[in-house]
Amino acid sequence: MEFDRLFQSQLDQLKEEGNYRIFAELQRECGAFPRVQNHGHGQDEVTVWCSNDYLGMGQHPTVMNAMIETVKSCGTGAGGTRNISGNAHHHKLLEAELADLHHKEDALLFTSGYVSNWAALSTLGSRLPNAVILSDELNHASMIEGIRHARCQKVIWKHNDPADLDRKLAGLPANATKIVAFESVYSMDGDIAPIAEILDVCEKHGALSYIDEVHAVGMYGPRGGGVAEREGLMDRITLIEGTLGKAYGVVGGYISGSRALCDFIRSFASGFIFTTALPPAVAAAATASIKHLKESSVERDMQKRQVARLRARLDAEGIPHEKNASHIIPVMVKDPVKCRMLSDILMDQFGIYVQPINYPTVPKGTERLRFTPGPLHSDEDIEFLVQALKTLWKQCAIAHAVA
Ligand code: PLP
Question: Could you identify the atom of ligand 1 that is nearest to the CA of residue 186?
């Protein structure tokens, strides 16, 4: 009970700041996505506008069948770590698929994208001689944790600023092993890194390049290999990290790179060695999803169309949103309490689910609603969302004027 008081006081503080997280309770219905059943407050059926199942692959028949058939043939779990239970054949097939996706010699699976970043960066930073990790200031929490765990020297460079990276690399001793860690698509602002310029700087200083393409794989490039594929840069990057849990609609994470690099991480990363491997059925479903998106651009094309359409309609109605070159549309609210309130009203009155993005996911004062239109949102869904936002924005303007 004494402990509960300690827990509660910090929870109360979160609530006071408006940063206490309340999760919706939703149930996806296969075939109906982005429509889902709502078991929490609000309407019984809601339309999801913030999913990271960006292309709806989580309900694609090919992906589902691969998972179902593999459960029937191989059972559910992997039976342990790969160290103990060995590689499932489906793990190796998936790694070959990923290596091919990124035109690399090899790939290595992890239980999530978070774990892959954490394990790979901490292993590189702790094992390479005189390692220094240079991290973009807006890198994801999983990269930050990996770097922290590496306990090597860390240098933060200005977001998406190759000139600052250049200056910081130039200040390091010649015997340092320099590791430059950055993302392609930044998930909260939706901006895209100047990858070619960053690679120019890495090459000038002989630095290892580490890119997180979590919010890009499946969606960018002719085969879904990410922004680096689209820009013809994959061969210049030392390590490409990605997830199987977003556009591919399953779960898991990976790195891809040279055979020696993957073997090095496999051999030394505790986050790989000491945890139960992904179920073979998950690996088979992810393989099916990657294979499908290598061949099919239908989902990507439709996503691009719906993203452009929502942006155009928001512009036409004067609803402010951040301009960027990705599929992520942030609508800035800049206040945690208002952000939650808008999200609640959208859910309760309009059957629209978009979660408030508050601190610590984004810095305080930059709270936002983050919309991710996908190929399964209809034009009518977009119109309904825009009209709902228009109504709320009008009410806010009236409230503002009265105040
Ligand atoms: N990297 C970035 C940039 C992310 O945004 C996320 C998750 O949202 C991750 C890594 C972690 O990936 P996963 O959800 O597969 O653990």
Answer: 3
User: Nearest C-alpha to atom 3 of ligand 1 is from which residue?
Assistant: 140
Residue 142 CB less than 6 A away from ligand 1: yes
Angle of helix 113-127 relative to helix 259-268, nearest 10 degrees, comes to 90
- Measured in Å, residue 317 CA sits from the centre of ligand 1 at 33
| Rounded Cα–Cα distance for residues 398 and 403 (Å) | 8
Ligand 1 center to 21 CA (angstroms): 18
Q: Is 250 in the pocket of ligand 1 (CB under 6 A)?
A: no
Q: Does ligand 1 have an atom closer than 6 angstroms to the CB of 245?
A: yes
The Cα–Cα gap between 153 and 125 comes to 8
In angstroms, what is the span from residue 5 Cα to ligand 1's centroid? Answer: 33
Question: Which residues are identified as catalytic?
Answer: 246
Coil vs helix vs strand at 266 = helix
pLDDT by residue for the chain (403 residues), tens only, comes to 689 999 999 999 999 988 888 899 999 999 999 999 999 988 899 999 999 999 999 999 999 999 999 999 999 999 999 999 999 999 999 999 999 999 999 999 999 999 999 999 999 999 999 999 999 999 999 999 999 999 999 999 999 999 999 999 999 999 999 999 999 999 999 999 999 999 999 999 999 999 999 999 999 999 999 999 999 999 999 999 999 999 999 999 999 999 999 999 999 999 999 999 999 999 999 999 999 999 999 999 999 999 999 999 999 999 989 999 999 999 999 988 899 999 999 999 999 999 999 888 898 999 999 999 999 999 999 999 999 999 999 887 766 665 5
Q: Where do we find the tokens 């430059």? A: 180
Whether the CB of 54 sits within 6 Å of ligand 1: no
Q: How far is CA 131 from CA 128, 147, 171, 282, in A?
A: 5, 11, 14, 35
